[in-house]
Predict the 3D structure of the following.
Amino acid sequence: MPRSYDTAVPPVGALLRRYDNPGEPLSCEPVSQGLLNRGYRLATTRGAYFLKHHLDDDPEIIIRQHRATQRLEPLGVPVAPPVADARGDTVAVIGGHCYALHPWVNGRHRDGAHLSTVECRRLGALLGLVHTRLEEVMNHPPGRSARSGRQLPAQEPEEEAGGRDAYKSADPQETFSLIDELLSLIRSAGGPRDSFDVLAEHRLVERRTLLELHADLRPPPAPAGGWVHGDFHPLNLLYRDAEPAAIVDWDRLGVQPRAEEAVRAAAIFFVRPEGALELTKVRAYARAYRRAVGADTSELAAAVHRVWWERLNDFWILRWRYQRHDRRADPQFAAVSALAVWWTREYEAVREAFAN
């Protein structure tokens, strides 16, 4: 069953009482129905804030994310660090839930279709800046919790990313079992089938054939990675005119092979509705990223192969719909599923765009 989300208005009064002179509340309107958290535009007599309700209630992890953005800001990374309350805390735990206030950033989202070639280069350079600056700020000795003043534990990269198995590639045998399970759920469901069900069944059968053809291309485990944003895509980047104003939603900050984040981001920014990538823009973006981080072509080529394999084995949207009965991600499925097929057919052209 899907997780039950609390859609009630957040405790604005209790939250604002923690801050010095935040103003009187005027309105609190939802602005995001994201998959991980809830967001609101909170207007007061002193201005506007972005109020974030963290659905994964772990204050220590949220504090670490906040500390990272606080350290990144003076290093030239466009971020929107949280507002500290009267005690210096950036996380408010109220009724067992975690909330944070951020300055309101006026901006808009832009995907690859709205970016010129020059702006694609800037995007690649920006992600490169994020990776290099994260390496600086996250490799400092562990800081102190803004809430308790106690020392936060140091974590090894493998622990941060979920253990040594985090860098293994998907096992096709496990994927075959998942495909069979999802097909069974689709075919045994009561009621009339809709167009999504028809497309999902087609893609599952198609993907099984592709995996049978390419099972011998499973990539080996990746080497240890570096600190990454973890969810770099158009909805987490705000532009003011042509300039990036703020990278938001650092909830997946962690350690991963960093070039893979560059490839994943491009696969979201530059995918067309029919599932093809705009390779001219990918090439401009990737060259700027490689220059920014000092990555060689072999690192990007390996990342392309691993992310391609990841996409070939990934059915998270269908798992959400048919196992969790959660349809919030359904609109993404058509382009995402088509991309895996197109990428397989155009594998060499995609690798060349990223690595040359």
